[in-house]
Design a protein that fits this description.
The complex is a heterodimer. Chain A contains 18 helices and 22 strands. By secondary structure, chain A is of the alpha/beta class. Chain A has 2 domains: 236 residues, Rossmann fold, CATH 3.40.50.300; 246 residues, 3-Layer(aba) Sandwich (Rossmann fold). Chain B has 15 helices and 4 strands. Chain B has a two-stranded antiparallel ribbon with strand order 1-4. Chain B has a two-stranded antiparallel ribbon with strand order 2-3. In chain B, helix 4 runs parallel beside helix 9 and helix 4 packs antiparallel against helix 12. The longest helix of chain B has 27 residues. Chain B starts with a helix and ends with a helix. At the A-B interface, helix 11, helix 12 and strand 18 of A face helix 10 and helix 11 of B.
């Protein structure tokens, strides 16, 4: 079907109004070995509607999405699209039925331009059968403009910041005859400014009568963007409600279920923001454990930073500001060209992660699949990695001691797995992130560096991770957290440093901030401030 | 055990389950079966195949491939490859023989020089691969030519005779408890390799480096050093293989063992190691080497033409890798 015909079709749907059901999933079930991942799920999306799909990690969201996308077949139940029953055996069949899925992992070709990626495999041709570049760019610009995506169609994808790559991915999915668009945690790597662009794009999509299934862990977005909420818990429908009928408390209660008390605390609701004190009430008199003075290298331009004993210190700033690079420099992954780093008042030089670890520094990196874990190895093997030296006698690896240590670490962080011999790739996202954490304690590190500690982690696991971080700070360690989730920084940190263009522009006490919005304003201001400087 | 497994499962899944168990990379069950099958086929086809003498014979013929394959397992598990081992072997044999001819006709000196030569070649391979970030495929492809060329240049392509009786006995021709020494060296190297890869902390570093190099680096593992040591190990073992070969032929020739690297790599891959790194077992490499050895031996004994032998070996290697992929 051509693009033209697709428009007509969607237009017709829009005229029929919002009540027409585009996709109807009935009693879909799925087993993996002995595990019942889905125990009969229902899901409906109407034309022009955003249905937010919520649930903790392991609740069955990913499995359901894979079945709808044709990447997996269901064991039972049915999927109807526009009244016709389908059973997808491949992603191509699902796509042909008008379903488009945007996954967390991107599928773009980095060396090609945005336009070339958008029309990959369906490039406009000239009379000689060659790609008509001018038309390609024109079509791409037209298409991007129609959705309001601020993308340069000529830009090479590898040159784009992550957020814009994701935008390209979403635009690519929208090309063609799409009736239902599935977005799998589209905002997990976006900053608030970029989120708004995504939201407005989603609104334009729904205005054309397309239905959207929106998977997210960020509950605030649900109220911003969705019309309906479907909540999964343990492979079952926990609740399906209209967004206008629920509030944040009810949402959290349905997601975590009846057995989880006390979880409705800090994570979701804004009113906890007024509570002061998060670590052990760090006073300005406690001594700095860690200091950076005028540290510069290829990405940093004179960073001054000080983290005190027992303090949770946040690093806020937009993507590319140097947040992550500060952590990488401290951990010995980037060379320092100028400036000094000191711990406990003494100047130190750290040239490799090995040296950093030896000095009691730990880093939980942002990308757990790329940098945090060896997915193909077991929990025990992963947990042993930073501690190899302590687990060695005469060159011999102490297998039993490693297992004991792994079991202890799993218990401390309540990693949900039958044994430490389970491969990490078989764990849910939240549990994987706990393993990344468990690599570093016990013993408790002196300085814990966290980069986006809860990306892709569900509400329950998120709260557990916050608890662990607070415990570590309470025991006297210093914690440095880089995050694009401002609410997270507000919940966790004692002080927050605003980073822009490779330097710390200002540091504020958490208690001086009134709300997330104020932090956001500070970041925006720091941007222009930093520009004036340079 | 297998009976209870099958009985609890629906019949159509039984086959699927059995095949996933057999083909999974953790324990090379399929390899055991393939090996047993080969033994049965050749025993039926040749009356002399199934005998202690012939098996010791196979062990001796396979020693070069087996010894180097242990080192190659480390290199492949770190996610690299070494194409230069056959040339390294030739060069190491030459330096060992020359040292005994020109410095002192002492077998220990020859052994040290030969193994050290291999180790140095490995060090160069490893250093270029890790510090200049050139893919090891290209570095060792270059080294394949360089080492062979040097071996040819030093004596202007002439062989160097070895006249040291102890050297012949220790590495090539001696027997101990009725077993030829090349077989004993093979067993020793496999034992050391298994302890190093599966029991030592270094082995953990090797798996981590090949499993996910950046995660290993973020965990404080020196990925470059781990990789380089694996190359040094492989080079040194190529040096040891050179001692075995030259001790049997009483001379070092610069043109020996051409194409041996393919048998070595085939043995490791047949043994279930992943070319993408992170997976592999020493016991798998042992079986892979033996399969290569049994094939060579059995095809000769059953009178298959040498041209057809090469074809059959190629088919078996591709089939084995195709199976182990899924």
């Amino acid at each position: 079907m051509t693009l033209e015909a697709g428009h007509n079709h969607v237009g017709a749907v829009a005229v029929k109004g919002r009540d027409e059901t585009l996709i109807k999933v009935t009693q879909v079930s799925k087993k993996f070995g002995g595990v019942h991942a889905l125990k009969g799920i229902d899901l409906e999306v109407n034309a022009g509607e955003v249905n937010a799909l919520l649930g903790e990690n392991g609740a069955g969201k990913s499995t359901l999405i894979k079945i709808i996308a044709g990447a997996m077949t269901a064991d039972g139940g049915s999927i109807e699209i526009a009244g016709r029953e389908h059973s997808f055996k491949s992603p191509a069949e699902s796509r042909a039925a008008g379903l488009a899925v945007v996954y967390q992992e991107l599928s773009l070709i980095p060396s090609l331009s945005v336009a070339a990626n958008l029309f990959l495999g369906r490039e406009p041709r000239n009379r000689l059968g060659l790609v008509n570049r001018r038309k390609l760019l024109r079509d791409a610009d037209e298409f991007l403009d129609s959705y309001g995506f601020p993308l340069d169609s000529k830009a090479r994808v590898s040159d784009l910041p992550f957020a814009y790559r994701q935008m390209t991915e979403i635009s690519k999915a929208l090309i063609g005859d799409v009736r239902v668009l599935v977005l799998d945690e589209p905002t997990s790597a976006l900053t608030s400014g970029e989120e708004e662009i995504l939201f407005s794009a989603v609104e334009r999509v729904t205005a054309r009568g397309v239905g959207v299934i929106y998977v997210t862990h960020r509950l605030k977005e649900v109220f911003r963007i969705s019309h309906r909420v479907t909540i999964l818990r343990d492979g079952r429908n926990a609740a399906t409600m209209l967004t206008k009928d629920v509030d944040m408390d009810k949402l959290v209660a349905e997601i975590v279920g009846p057995n989880h008390n006390g979880l409705k605390t800090a994570v979701a609701s804004d009113n906890t923001l007024s509570q002061p004190g998060h670590g052990n009430g760090v006073s300005s008199s406690s001594s700095p454990i860690f200091q950076l003075k005028a540290v510069s290298n290829d990405r940093l331009r004179g960073v001054d930073l000080e983290v005190r004993e027992g303090e949770i210190h946040g690093l806020a700033g937009s993507i590319g500001s140097g947040r992550t690079e500060i952590l990488e420099t401290v951990f010995g992954l980037r060379k320092i060209k100028a400036g000094t780093m000191s711990m406990d008042g003494k100047e130190v030089s750290i040239k490799s992660p090995y040296e950093a670890i030896a000095k009691g520094i730990a880093l939980a990196p942002e990308d757990r699949h790329e940098e945090g874990l060896i997915l193909d190895q077991t929990i025990e093997q992963n947990l042993a990695l930073p501690r190899l030296k302590g687990l060695t006698r005469y060159g011999w690896f102490l297998r039993k001691a490693s297992k004991a240590q792994a079991n202890l670490a799993m218990q401390t962080l309540s990693v949900k797995a039958p044994a430490s011999s389970v491969r990490v790739k078989n764990l849910s996202g939240g549990n994987q992130q706990k393993v990344v954490f468990a690599k570093w304690f016990p013993p408790v590190p002196k300085l814990l560096l966290l980069d986006e500690p809860t990306v892709g982690v569900d509400v329950g696991a998120r709260e557990e991770i916050y608890g662990v971080v607070r415990d570590i700070a309470r025991s006297g360690s210093a914690v440095l957290v880089a995050s694009s989730d401002l609410l997270e920084l507000m919940i966790l940190c004692d002080r927050i440093s605003i980073v822009a263009d490779g330097r710390v522009v200002t540091t504020v006490n958490r208690s001086e901030l009134i709300g997330e919005e104020e932090l956001h304003r500070l970041i925006q201001q720091s941007h222009s401030f930093s520009k004036e400087l340079s | 055990m297998s009976q209870t497994l099958t009985s609890t499962m629906p019949p159509e899944n039984g086959f699927k389950r059995a095949s996933t168990v057999l083909l999974s990379g953790d324990r090379p069950y399929l390899l055991y079966i393939a090996f047993a099958l080969l033994l049965v086929v050749f025993s039926a086809a040749s009356p002399v195949f199934f005998s202690v003498d012939n098996f010791l014979n196979i062990g001796r013929q396979t020693a070069l491939v087996s010894i180097i394959a242990v080192g190659m397992t480390f290199v492949i598990v770190t996610g690299q490859i070494d194409l230069s081992v056959a040339s390294t072997l030739a060069l190491s044999g030459m330096t060992a023989a020359l040292a005994m001819q020109h410095i002192s006709n002492n077998w220990v000196l020859g052994a040290v020089v030969g193994i050290a030569t291999g180790g140095i070649v490995g060090l160069i391979n490893g250093t270029l691969t890790t510090h200049l970030a050139i893919p090891s495929f290209l570095v060792t492809l270059g080294m394949l030519g360089i080492a062979r060329g040097i071996a040819l240049i030093v004596t202007d392509t002439k062989p160097v005779l070895i006249t040291n009786q102890e050297y012949w006995d220790v590495f090539g021709e001696g027997y101990f408890a009725g077993v030829p020494v090349p077989v004993l060296w093979t067993v020793l190297i496999f034992a050391i390799g298994a302890v190093l890869l599966h029991g030592s902390t270094f082995g953990r570093r090797v798996y981590a480096t090949g499993g996910n190099a950046s995660a290993a680096r973020y965990s404080g593992i020196n990925v470059k050093r781990t990789t380089t040591i694996s190359f040094v190990l492989t080079g040194a073992l190529a040096g040891l293989a050179a001692l075995v070969l030259t001790a049997r032929s009483h001379a070092a020739r610069p043109d020996v063992a051409q194409g041996l690297e393919l048998d070595v790599i085939a043995a490791v891959i047949l043994g279930g190691s992943s070319l993408f790194g992170g997976r592999g077992l020493i016991v798998g490499t042992l079986l892979g080497s033996l399969i290569i050895g049994v094939l060579n031996n059995g095809l000769v004994l059953t009178g298959v033409s040498s041209a057809l032998q090469v074809v059959i070996k190629g088919v078996i290697i591709i089939a084995a890798v195709a199976f182990s992929k899924k």
